[in-house]
Prior knowledge:
Blueprint: E1 3-12, E2 17-19, H1 20-24, H2 31-38, E3 42-44, H3 51-65, E4 75-79, H4 90-98, E5 105-108, H5 114-127, E6 134-140, H6 153-156, E7 162-171, E8 176-183, E9 191-192, H7 206-210, E10 217-218, H8 220-241, E11 251-254, H9 259-269, H10 280-283, H11 290-300, E12 309-316, E13 320-327
Parallel strand pairs: 4-5, 4-6, 11-12
Antiparallel strand pairs: 1-7, 2-3, 6-7, 8-13, 9-10, 12-13
Helix pairs in contact: 3-4, 8-9
The structure holds oxa(dethia)-CoA.
Amino acid sequence: MRHSRIVGIGHYVPEQVMTNADLESMMDTSDEWIRQRTGIEERRVVTKESTSDLGYQASLRAIENAGLEPKDIDLIVFATLSPDYYFPGCGPLLQDKLGVDTIPALDIRQQCSGFVYGLAVADQFIRTGAYDHVLLVGAEVQSKGLDYTTRGRDLAVIFGDGAGAVVLGPSDEPGVQSFHLHSQGKHYDMLWMEKPGSANKPIITPEDIQEGRHFPKMEGQTVFKHATRRFGEVIQEALKANDLSFDDIDMFFFHQANLRIVEALCKHLSIPAEKTFNNLSRYGNTTAASLPLCISEAVEAGRLKRGDLICPSAFGSGFTWASAIIRW
Ligand code: UT7
């Protein structure tokens, strides 16, 4: 039977660091507030680069790590909530940057869960034999679209820019063992960017911009409550589906939304700290890039080794949430 496994991984972050002290000079916030509520100390921000630029750099590293060349990629799956343009998506832009004529490219719009959704898409295409090597990218440039004034401080201090990518290929043994995907659109406006969008006519007005409706908005406490519940559920769902216990998993990777969420979950589920890897303090929340960035750094740090069993999980805007079980 044909399965899929991750054969290469890489990440890329822009050079410029924005510290909590930098934010203090831009709005009414404090290093203490940000650290206490989120665990974030600094984040990366682009100067000029776009989301597809960051995705391109991460992709080159993942393809090289797989021992492949861009021409070996059969399909691009690009997860982002901050595309270069409203349309076309970042998938075709990345195809062009990689110089790989004329392979298919698609975009995933599942925000923080985008990487796990993309993993499921890639796995299906490989298992059916449609494609051999799928490049899955999670990349975000949040900093160009945030409100760095006191009005937008709740979100501006959380988000950061970055990218991570994996290459999936065919395998006799299961690498991606299962995935578990969910959505609940009734909470769409708990974490969203209202405008521009086709729900409005015109899609955006000068007044909208004046009122900041083109900036993301979040009901933080509601999202926090749903996140802690859904993370727990979807991890347990993954374990149950594979007849596994918490002890069987070598590493749990959480979408890096808030260190307090991760800590609360680990306490509730009795997951020891050595079975997790967090880089939120250095990057903030990079939404679709967060999981591949985290897993890639864990590999570099020697915390994740071939043969380990891992459980990545995510929750975010939509709401969407997801988990997977992967033999690394
Ligand atoms: O990635 C997708 C998933 N996202 C998440 O899971 C995020 C979930 N939510 C959270 O992580 C938290 O809700 C936040 C970290 C965003 C906020 O923490 P909180 O403890 O829920 O704070 P809050 O929104 O209840 O605000 C508490 C106070 C408010 O002031 P008052 O009304 O008590 O006077 C806010 O105005 O903190 C104020 N505040 C800030 N103060 C300083 C909000 N943002 C800031 C800020 N600096 N950046």
